[in-house]
# Entry
Amino acid sequence: MASAQLIITYIGGPTALLEFGGVRLLTDPTFDPPGGEYRTGPVTLRKLTGPGLSPQDLGSIDYVLLSHDHDFDNLDHGGRALVPLAQRVITTSEGAQRLGGNSLGLKDWESVEVAAPDGRALRIIATPARHGPKGISRGAVNGFVFFFTDSPEHAIYISGDTVWYSGVAEVARRFPVEVVILHLGAALVPSVGNFHLTMTAAEAVETAQHFADAVIVPVHFEDWEHFSEGREQIVRAFENAHFDNRLKWLERGRPVLIDLPVISGKSYPR
# Structure
C-alpha cells in the first residue's frame, strides 16, 4: 500500500509549518508577541498568547498559504515581515493585489503547481470559504487543498477562516482528503455582529461527517480574545458524536508526524 507523510509544527493561532514531500509550507503567519491590540475600523482584536516558535526557528520557507491578508489574527506585523522571504505567497486575488511582490492570487478552484526538491509537482488549489453568515461579507478568504500530482489520493485540506456551508461540503465531494486542518474557535466580534465568523465545534463535527475518512486537526481556536469556543468545547462535541478518535491535537512548537494511508475507493480526476 502506498503511503506518504505530513509533518505539522504548530506555532499558534492559524500558523503552522507543514512539511510534505520536501516542500515547506507556512500557513497564515502570526508571530507577534502577546498583548497587542489591532484596530481595523470598529473592530479591535487582542492577542493573548505569543508564537511557539520565532521566524528564526523555522529556517527557510518555500511557500506561504495565506487564507486572507486583511485580518490581523491571520497576518500580524511579524507575519507580514516574514512573507517576502518565501518563494511565493499564495492567497486571494484581492490579497495579492494589496501585498504585491511575491504574492499570487487564486480564485475558488484555481490552482498552481510548484516543484518539490525531488522534481515532483505539488498542486495547490484555492477552495471556497465564507467568513461569517450568508449575506455578510468579511472580505475574500481562501481555503487550500494540496497534493502531489502523481499521488492525488494523499490530499490535505486547510479550511481557512470559514463557517460550515455548501462550499466546504463541495471540497469534500471533489477531493479524497486525508487530513483536514480546521480553523475553529467560533470567532465572535460584537462590533461586527452577534454571530460567529469561524466554525463552531458543532460545525466541526458536521465537517468531519463529510470528510469521513480524514484526520481532523484543530487550529485557530486559541491565542486571541475573540474566540468564543476552545479545546474543551471541541472535545465535548466530538466525544458526543463518537468522533473523538478522529481528532489530532498539536503541541505548540513540536513537530507531529501524520502518516497518510491510501483511502480506498476514492479517486481524483487527473
About this structure: Residues 262-270 have pLDDT under 50 and may be disordered. The chain is about 15% helix and 30% strand.
